TrEMBL record:
Keyword match Oxidoreductase: yes
PANTHER family recorded: OXIDOREDUCTASE, SHORT-CHAIN DEHYDROGENASE/REDUCTASE FAMILY (AFU_ORTHOLOGUE AFUA_5G02870), SHORT-CHAIN DEHYDROGENASE_REDUCTASE FAMILY PROTEIN
Keywords: Oxidoreductase
Location of the Ketoreductase domain: 15-199
Signal sequence, renumbered to the chain: none
InterPro entries: KR_dom (IPR057326), NAD(P)-bd_dom_sf (IPR036291), SDR_fam (IPR002347)
Name this polypeptide is given: Oxidoreductase
Length: 252
């Protein structure tokens, strides 16, 4: 195999990535995809220690290094500490995937102050603090990729006010980071998944038919389809401050 072919097949060879919330769903699929591209990978988890261990074993089976770190993105110290720990355990940090998130859905008048605090702590503050910590340790060519939601572009029905608000904040964060870090060659982008078949939102769940119906393709996506776009951005040099919809035409 030529050097060109090796580079094309392992575009992240020698890089280290951290995927928050990487024990299942989009996070786990992303960790595995980045490993296939050549990256060593750290994943965070809160309650899914066993699932995180499975991801680590799968990454190692691909010949890459891997570590699982327990970190609650809603805890200010742990959100930033996970970045420091990943860089320490794997020697550096080149890619941060802000995937950890929570969703509290329901009529706006039913949401408690505790609901608001938790969603904003995980979905907004935790992403900001992790991104700030990553920017402090990333070399030139670093990548910050955040997982948003199709609901920042189109909210098809009631009940998503708090979740949509929290994820919309990440669009502004991404654009500002792109400007602030561009001079250092660090890019920042955001990926908006549509309905995706995961444990949290299964394609055969009670509300799945309605979600699929509002997409142009009429189906749920897979975690692997989202991971493909994230992996592309992890290797892209001239893309920053951008939003990418992986939503089956939800926003069309």
């Amino acid at each position: 195999m030529s050097n060109f072919e090796q580079a094309a097949g392992n575009s992240l060879l020698g890089k280290v990535a951290l995927v928050t919330g990487g024990s299942r769903g989009i996070g786990a699929a992303t960790a595995l995809r980045l490993a296939r591209e050549g990256a060593d990978v750290a994943v965070t988890y809160v309650n899914g220690e066993e699932a995180a261990g499975e991801v680590v074993r799968a990454v190692r089976a691909l010949g890459r290094r891997a570590v699982a770190l327990r970190a609650d993105a809603g805890d200010a110290e742990e959100a930033a500490g996970a970045v420091t720990a990943a860089a320490r355990e794997l020697g550096r940090l080149d890619v941060l995937v802000n995937n950890a998130g929570v969703g509290v859905l329901g009529p706006v008048e039913s949401l408690s102050p505790a609901d608001v605090d938790r969603v904003l702590a995980v979905n907004v503050r935790g992403v900001f603090l992790a991104s700030r910590a990553a920017a402090a340790v990333m070399p030139r060519g670093g990548r910050i990729i955040t997982v948003g939601t199709c609901m920042t572009q189109r909210v098809p029905g009631p009940g998503g006010t708090l979740y949509a608000m929290s994820k919309s904040a990440l669009v502004g964060l991404t654009r500002a980071l792109a400007r602030e870090l561009g001079g250092r060659g660090i890019t920042a982008n955001i990926v908006h998944p549509g309905p995706v078949d995961t444990d949290m939102n299964p394609a055969d769940g009670p509300h799945a038919a309605g979600q699929a119906a509002v997409t142009a393709l009429g189906r749920f996506g897979t975690a692997q389809e989202v991971a493909e776009t994230i992996a592309h951005l992890a290797g892209a040099d001239y893309v920053t401050g951008a939003e990418f919809s992986v939503d089956g035409g939800h926003a069309a």
